[in-house]
Design goal:
OB fold (Dihydrolipoamide Acetyltransferase, E2P); elongated; single chain; 8 strands; four-stranded antiparallel sheet; mainly beta
Length: about 80
């Protein structure tokens, strides 16, 4: 005789959907105005020249150019360099 009385999943066996975070356009790649560069939780990467930050910490381009990652005073930074 089976010990499982019903066929539904065990309690607490649920998982949240993935949020698709991370870098969307990498360094050296071209970006246009409005392109999302990084989706992140918290400010692990800061916005540099030609980049703005949304209310959910998403970094997006405000000018056309080439994406460039660098460090300034130990902080990661992403910027757009005009080509």
């Amino acid at each position: 005789m089976a010990h499982t009385k019903n066929v539904k999943a065990t309690k607490g066996n649920r998982d949240s959907i993935a949020k698709r975070l991370g870098v969307k356009i990498y360094g050296g790649s071209p970006a246009k105005n409005g392109n999302i560069l990084i989706r992140q939780r918290g400010m692990s990467v800061a916005a540099g020249q030609g980049v703005r930050m949304g209310h959910d910490y998403t970094l997006y381009a405000v000018t056309d150019g080439i994406v460039n990652f660098k460090q300034r005073r130990g902080k990661k930074l992403v910027e757009i360099v005009s080509h």
